[in-house]
Amino acid sequence: MTSSNPAVRAARHTHHHTAPRKLDRGLITLAPLILTVVLSGGCAPRDSAIAPAVGPLVLDLRYPTSLPVAVTESISVWGTIGTGKGRLRMNGRLVPVEPNGGFATFVPIPPGQAPRLELEARKGSAVVRRSIPITRARLEPIPPAVPKPAAHWVRLRRPPSDTVDAATQARPIFARWTPRGDVALPLAQGIRLPVEAETPDAVRLRLARGIAVWVPRMETEEASPRRVTPTIAQVHLTQSPTQSVVEVAVAEELATTVETVLTEVRWTLFGAEAATVAPMLGDQGLVRRLAVNDPKDGRVIVTLSLARPPLGWRTSWRAGRSVLEIRPGLEPTAGLGGLIVALDAGHPPLGSVGPTGLAEDSLTLAVALDAAQRLRALGARPFLTRRDAGPLSVEARIALAEAAGAQLFVSIHANAPGEGRPPWSVDGTRVYWLHPNAFRLAKVLQDSVAASMHQAAAGVINNDLAVLRPTWFPAVLVEGTALVIPIREAYLRSPAGIADYAAGLVAGIRSWVESPQQ
Ligand SMILES: [Zn+2]
After folding, report:
1. What residues does CATH 2.30.30.40 cover in the chain?
2. Which residue, of 51, 247, 295, 310, has the greatest Cβ tally within 10 A?
3. 431, HSE (Cβ side, Cα atoms, 13 Å)
4. Which residues does 65 contact at the CB level (< 8 Å), separation at least 6?
5. DSSP readout, 236-262?
6. In the chain, where does the domain assigned CATH 3.40.630.40 lie?
7. Distance CA 382, CA 379 (A)
8. Which H or E element spans position 235?
9. 3-state SS string over 22-51?
10. In Å, how far are 62, 257, 291, 322 from 228, measured between CA atoms?
């Protein structure tokens, strides 16, 4: 570690750190208190968990930074005025400033076509001003869906314009149950499906009788209709102690889903029919029985009975075969001993910056290193996707974890709000998951990190995040707390903040391993 370690930097700032347990209801309840103190003389509360700073008056914005910014009604603004002894106004309203000069607020956009936010920081006779230009974002209504009498077909594909990175280009198309609903079902690019209905910006695709999903129109292109329904007549099962592989010969790649309940796995292939395939019996492998079922509604269901619940699975398409890889679950009695845990210190590239400049990427690395040490002490084998400040792509993070034999993947982050949302909306501990095998891990990590960091458990959220997509192992993304809230940023700068975050991660992983699955 170098001096970029926030723990090292924080050590200089926290001579009287107190655990923010008594403050864990967040800034909403704190705001009036601080506002009162500021109004009555600009003196910071002495018992604050934030160490005071009395630098020269500045007006450094950490958000927004690229201007003009498009917002509909209100905007988050965070940054520092360099001193806890100054005052800050936005469009004439006094904004609470923390003892270290940090602030994070949510302000209404003034009316008019080209509104501006006028910021003014003052300390004695010193004044610094900034003006933020704003363009108004437009909300569009959802148009009604129009049924398509003459069905045409489309092929799923990522729009060529969507080139954030290779991981984004290669990711599946996420279908939704309603035109602009939450992401529901990953569908591989290249699949052909018939269109049942459409709106100007979305199409409803038929998977099987009575099962349809919505996909954004821009993620499709016209395709020739499929003339012959693919028939599944051959299924292969290969097993080793570490994985079982089911291969289905099929004329073209199909939409599939995988559901598991305890030791049963149902792999559905949409748009196919099945010839009679005799049930297969596994010998000593994870799969004990395999059956192919055709309910005659446009689906084929491959049902697997397992010796124990799976740790994870992955589907792919390889040279005329649809493939399901499935890996056995952990033995709870083995505990953490030998468990290969991938710890992914979130960012760079990108990442948020707190009001007084704490960078998310250096914080996450400090937490990952601390957690690795704790895991090693418990007999686990932690693997860090990065150990220095160099940027690392999402694909590289996953590939490195897979090559290291990771059995679970934990990406470590600190939160900042999206456009038009207030800083306190991201307070508390949130954990994101994508594939169902990661839900239980997300839940225990939310509870343990929240408890360890004296935060609210703010949610276990299903979302299509790039780092959670291509994995077979359970993968989660943890937002331990809000980096943009000054009191949380001050806590994350302290050794206690880093230790609490790391200890919460390790406690969660431990209870995930040691509690019975499902
Ligand atoms: Zn992040």
Report:
1. 148-223
2. 310
3. 28
4. none
5. EEEE-SS-EEEEEE-SS---EEEEEET
6. 333-514
7. 9
8. strand 235-239
9. HHCCCHHHHHHHHHHHHHCCCCCCCCCCCC
10. 57, 22, 24, 18
**pLDDT single digits (tens) 426-474:** 999 999 998 888 999 999 999 999 999 999 999 999 887 878 877 789 9
Q: Report DSSP letters for 387-442, one per residue.
A: SSSS---HHHHHHHHHHTT-SEEEEEEEE-PPTT--GGGG-SEEEEE-SGGGHHHH
Q: Give residue 351 CA to ligand 1 midpoint distance, Å.
A: 5
CATH, range 333-514? 3.40.630.40
Separation CA 438–CA 260 (nearest Å): 12
Q: How far apart are CA 321 and CA 237, in angstroms?
A: 12
Ligand 1 center from residue 353 Cα (angstroms): 10
Distance 359 CA to ligand 1 centre (A): 10
Span 224-250, pLDDT tens digits: 999 899 999 999 999 998 889 999 999
CA of 31 to the centre of ligand 1 (A): 26
Q: What is the pLDDT of residue 282?
A: 80
**424-455 residues labelled b (16+ CB within 10 A) or e (exposed):** bebbbbbbbbbbebbebbbbbbbbbbbbbbbb
Please count the CA atoms within 13 angstroms of the CA of 502 that sit on its side-chain side: 25
Cα 361 to middle of ligand 1, angstroms: 8
Output the six-digit token pair for 317. 């398409």
Burial of 296 (0-12, 13-18, 19+ CB in 10 A): exposed
384 close to 341: Cβ distance less than 8 angstroms: no
Question: What b/e readout covers 223-260, taking b as 16+ CB neighbours within 10 angstroms?
Answer: beeeeeebebeebebebeeebbbbbbebeebbbbbbeb
- The tokens for 151 are 């069905």
Tell me the CA distances in angstroms from 314 to 141, 186, 288, one per residue in order: 37, 12, 19
Q: Is 342 helix (H, G, I), strand (E, B) or coil?
A: strand
Q: Is the peptide bond before 68 cis (omega within 30 degrees of 0)?
A: yes
Q: What is the pLDDT of residues 379-389, one digit of tens each?
A: 999 999 999 99
CA of 178 to the centre of ligand 1 (A): 28
Number of neighbours of residue 53 by Cβ within 10 angstroms? 20
The CA 418 to ligand 1 mean position distance, Å, reads 12
Fold of 148-223: SH3 type barrels. (2.30.30)
Closest CA to 495 of 12, 47, 54: 12
Supply the mean pLDDT for the chain: 85
Amino acid at 73: E
Task: Dihedral sign for Cα 10, 14, 18, 23, please.
Answer: negative
Could you give the residue range(s) of every CATH 2.60.40.3470 domain in the chain? 231-332
Q: Could you tell me the distance, in angstroms and rounded to a whole number, from the CA of residue 479 to the centre of ligand 1?
A: 7
pTM for this model (two decimals): 0.77
Q: From ligand 1's centre to the CA of 414, what distance in Å?
A: 6
